[in-house]
């Protein structure tokens, strides 16, 4: 997949959590993650069997993306999953995570996989069904042995996030 295609997706409203990167940074991003691309390939004139292709044919359209941040052994974090709105409703939003699940199932020492989603109505149930992943809702418990209940999913927003300034202002208001 091309740097330009992924940057265009990152600039879209559909990927509200991301923003485009300089080309060199995006190239590194693509090289150091396990990326999944979804493409619309023009109709073939051939009526023969489907074959594996080594390169995308001309006029192929980039319509979806997802990436795993992983060490390929013990941990995987799924992020940046999207399908263009014009191609939603065709099952691709379930098919691509199923491809991710198939990949994860080949990692015999995988300790965990995780993701974050803000879409409780569509994405969370889909990921539960397709990936077998669970929503983790835990809380601090005063007086308990470890200070809380279960795992504590935690996240820090860094300067690379479009939400960074908003989070920084919220943190400043608490002081």
Short overview:
Strand 2 (61-70) and strand 3 (75-83) form a beta hairpin. The chain has helices at residues 3-11, 23-31, 92-104, 123-131, 164-174; strands at residues 34-40, 61-70, 75-83, 112-115. The radius of gyration is 19 Å and the shape is globular.
Structure explained in plain terms:
- Residues 1-159 form the N-acetyltransferase domain.
- It comes from Rhynchosporium agropyri.
- This is Related to GNAT family N-acetyltransferase.
- Keywords: Transferase.
- The structure is a single chain.
- This protein is α+β, with helices and mostly antiparallel strands and 175 residues long.
- The chain has a domain at 3-42 and 54-135: 3-Layer(aba) Sandwich (Aminopeptidase), CATH 3.40.630.30.
- Helices cover 29% and strands 17% of the residues.
- α1 (3-11) packs across α2 (23-31).
- The N and C termini lie far apart (44 Å).
- The mean pLDDT is 85.
